[in-house]
Amino acid sequence: MKKLIPYEIDGNKVSAEYLQKAIEPNLSQLETDLVGDLSYYSENSQYTPGSLKIISITAIGDDQYSMSYGFKWTIFNGCLDINADEYTTERVSFKVKSHGLEFDIIDTQRSTSAEEL
User: Fold this and answer.
1) 2-106, which class in CATH?
2) CB 19 within 8 A of CB 27
3) Mean pLDDT, residues 19-24 taken together
């Protein structure tokens, strides 16, 4: 799935630091898509809101970059009556376009039974 963050490259040299400063104020637009569906860990897993952070941005080609990010999530274990806190790191690639930053996000939503049939 493609997700576009509108952004005008204002003639500045595009660097990892420049892109990180451009993306950070817009992370809330990507948050749900980047975290995805945590039910593959457990039906009881929940994202910790506001914990999404950029770890690094690396150039991988002409106007193409890879962004590493991390976030916290919790899982409640009813049998043991405890919450476990976890931290996950992931990567997403994106392209710098003239009108914005286009993220190529892998859809992790679980299929319904009807969709599988």
Assistant:
1) alpha beta
2) no
3) 92
